Structures are given as C-alpha cells and as structure tokens.
Amino acid sequence: MRLGTAMKDSVETQPRRFYDGGVLAIGDRIGLPPDPGADPRIVLERHLDDRLETFSLERRIAYRDRHLGEILVPASPDFRTDLTSTPALFTWLVPKTGAHLPAALVHDALVAGGGDPSYTSTDGHDINRVEADRVFRDAMADTGTGVVRRWIVWAAVTAATIFVRDGLPWTPLLNWLHRIGAGASLALIVYLGYSATGDLFDRDWPLAAALPWMGDRVWWLEVLGGLAGAIVIPLALSLLWGRFLLAGVIGCVTLAVLLHVTVGLVAISLTYLSLERLARWSPNLARVLALLVMVAALVGFVRLSFD
C-alpha cells in the first residue's frame, strides 16, 4: 500500500487504462483472458432478493493502475454490486450510472471482502480499502468523470472506510483516533448547522449555541456569515481526520454547505415513504387524505388570492 498516493492531487485522464477483462472460468465454462486491445464490456445480470436490486458481472473489467498494475474484477462469480453505491438522496449529485460506472464497479469489487485485503492485483499487490479508495479516485479520472464529482465521491468513500470495521490498516489505537476525530467533526458540523438555522430564523432553539459570525444582523448578512462559517469551521475541524486530512476538508465543507439541502431531501423522502406505506396499508385512507389535501390547497389558494 502506498499511503502517499492517497494525497496526490490529480492524474492525467487515460481511458485506455480500462479494457476488456475476459470471462471468469466457472464450472464447465472456459475462461477468457483479458484483452488490453479491446474496450471494456459491462455486461450485467439483474438479481432481486427481498426487493433489493443487485447485479452480477458477466464479464470482468480490467484496469491498469498506475501503482498496482493490472486489476481484474470480479475475482469471484459470487460478486454482487448495486452499481454506484449512492444513497437515493444524492443521486442528483452522483448518479447510479454514467461515465464513472466502470470505476465504481472496480471499487465495489475491490472492497467486496470487507476490511481485510480482499483482492490481489495481477502483479501480486494486496489491496486494502484505503488503497482501493485511491484506485477509485484515479479510475474515475481515467473515465473522464468531472473533477469536483470524483473528489467528493472519493471523500465519501474514504469516510465510509474510516468507520468500517477493520477498514483501516493501522494499529487499533490509531484507527480509533481517526474514527473519533472524523465522527466528532461531522457531529459538530450538524450541531452548528442546527444552531445556525435557529439563529437565521431568530428562534431560541433548545441547546443551540450563539454563533458570533451570524449574530443579530439583517438576514442576508446572516446568510453570508453562515456560508463563511460553513467553510472556515469545517476547514479547522478537518484537522481531526489525521492522515485523511484532504478527505476531511472536502467531506466537512461539503456536509456543511449542503446540510440544509440534505435535511430538505430527507424530509421529502420520508414523506414519500410514509405515503407509500399508507397507500399499501389502507388505500381508502390514502384516498381520503389526498382529497383533504386538495381541498385544503383549494381553500388556501382562494383565501390568499382574494383576501
């Protein structure tokens, strides 16, 4: 593992680092070797288990990493992927599929074994989660994925690696220091966002802190102060991420800036899921509720329009 490469700022886009990985030998089926001269072929078979949609790869993907050499995935026919592992709330930022899909499939296969080194490259390099995240970032660059998107995605998967059991390759003490530092910084950002919202709407919310960079000012100055705080404070908190400082900078600032957007999307998603559950549990009650909402909207529209 090369920890120094995790902090490398950029790589040159080289799409030909991806190529057809051939076919795994399964049972009586004869395997096919990788073909560096052929474009990668993503052939998926859909699986549905307990309403969970996953896919298996009918062909392997080959990727020639700059530090580890050739990587062939998947290494096992049991491998399953949900394509790009993006929560539904953030598919507007990182879609499930797109230019980055080959890189996402490679990363999924590299971390399929959990925290332990789950894959060995053709040249004999063991790849753990930290190195797999770096491979993912470089591979996204080779697919032509935008700079902002690939760095945000890399920061997100790095945060996941920090909190996954056995995801970090160091001593237990150092691993826990990273987890505590990252967890504390994220929790504090959420708390400050909560306090900033109360300050903006001049509400004395329980346990909220007074934020001097917002204060009792006109609303647009409070918004500007809140935005400045959402950048400056996370930059300081990212120091708690230790060796993952760069991921901390990107992750903390992104969380702070998009916190209210995320809360809004969560509220919308929970409303939708509640309505879906209500429609399955009691269709008649769902119809009555829909009718009441339309009547209330009509009454409100008339009153507000003619008062």
Sum up the overall morphology in one term. globular
Query: How many strand segments?
Result: 7
Biggest pleated-sheet summary:
3 strands, antiparallel
* Terminal residue distance: 70 Å
* Unreliable parts: 1-8
Structural class determined from secondary elements: mainly alpha
Order of helices and strands: EEEEEHEEHHHHHH
Radius of gyration: 24 Å
Helical content class: 40-55%
Percentage of residues in DSSP E strands: 5-15%
Total domains, how many? Answer: 2
Mean pLDDT: 90
* Count of alpha and pi helical runs: 7
Strand order of the largest sheet: 1-4-5
Short overview:
This protein has 307 residues and is mostly helical.
Describe the structure.
With 307 residues, the chain is mostly helical. The protein has 2 domains: 3-163, no CATH class; 172-269, no CATH class. The protein has 7 helices and 7 strands; from the N terminus they run E-E-E-E-E-H-E-E-H-H-H-H-H-H. It has helices spanning 101-110, 129-142, 147-163, 172-200, 219-237, 245-281, 283-306; strands at 18-20, 44-49, 52-57, 61-65, 69-73, 119-120, 126-127. The strands form 3 sheets. Strands 1-4-5 form a 3-stranded antiparallel β-sheet, with helices on one face. Helix 1 (101-110) runs antiparallel to helix 2 (129-142), helix 5 (219-237) packs across helix 6 (245-281) and helix 6 crosses helix 7 (283-306).
Topology at a glance:
Layout (H helix, E strand, L loop, with lengths): L17 E3 L23 E6 L2 E6 L3 E5 L3 E5 L27 H10 L8 E2 L5 E2 L1 H14 L4 H17 L8 H29 L18 H19 L7 H37 L1 H24 L1
Antiparallel strand pairs: 1-4, 2-3, 4-5, 6-7
Which tags fit this structure?
307 residues; mainly alpha; two-stranded antiparallel ribbon; globular
